[in-house]
């Protein structure tokens, strides 16, 4: 299996509804590392690293998110190239 790290920006009602908590929990259950971080524009940035298949399943989950959120769209910016972004332990809520 191939390891990869990707960045997602999630838009919709994703702040103040537990989105980062559920994203972290889903990431850990999927054996992924990364973080979920609120952005000033009301979106959430998600960095995720792990096995390709797990990242793909996580991306599908991210398109819907938890029941408490309303995901309007997700921008997937593709593989990360900076090594420090891929060297994350656990799944943090920032």
TrEMBL record:
<dbReference type="InterPro" id="IPR020456">
    <property type="entry name" value="Acylphosphatase"/>
</dbReference>
<comment type="similarity">
    <text>Belongs to the acylphosphatase family.</text>
</comment>
<feature type="domain" description="Acylphosphatase-like">
    <location>
        <begin position="5"/>
        <end position="94"/>
    </location>
</feature>
<dbReference type="InterPro" id="IPR001792">
    <property type="entry name" value="Acylphosphatase-like_dom"/>
</dbReference>
<dbReference type="InterPro" id="IPR017968">
    <property type="entry name" value="Acylphosphatase_CS"/>
</dbReference>
<dbReference type="InterPro" id="IPR036046">
    <property type="entry name" value="Acylphosphatase-like_dom_sf"/>
</dbReference>
<feature type="active site">
    <location>
        <position position="20"/>
    </location>
</feature>
<dbReference type="GO" id="GO:0003998">
    <property type="term" value="F:acylphosphatase activity"/>
</dbReference>
<keyword id="KW-0378">Hydrolase</keyword>
<dbReference type="Pfam" id="PF00708">
    <property type="entry name" value="Acylphosphatase"/>
</dbReference>
<protein>
    <recommendedName>
        <fullName>Acylphosphatase</fullName>
        <ecNumber>3.6.1.7</ecNumber>
    </recommendedName>
</protein>
<feature type="active site">
    <location>
        <position position="38"/>
    </location>
</feature>
């Amino acid at each position: 299996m191939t390891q990869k790290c990707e960045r997602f920006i999630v838009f919709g009602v994703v702040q103040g509804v537990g989105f980062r908590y559920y994203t972290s929990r889903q990431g850990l259950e999927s054996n992924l590392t990364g973080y979920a971080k609120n952005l000033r524009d009301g979106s959430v940035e998600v960095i995720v690293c792990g096995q390709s298949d797990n990242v793909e399943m996580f991306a599908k989950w991210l398109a819907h998110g938890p029941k408490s959120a309303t995901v309007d769209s997700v921008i997937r910016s593709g593989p990360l190239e900076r090594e420090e972004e891929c060297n994350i332990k656990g799944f943090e809520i920032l």
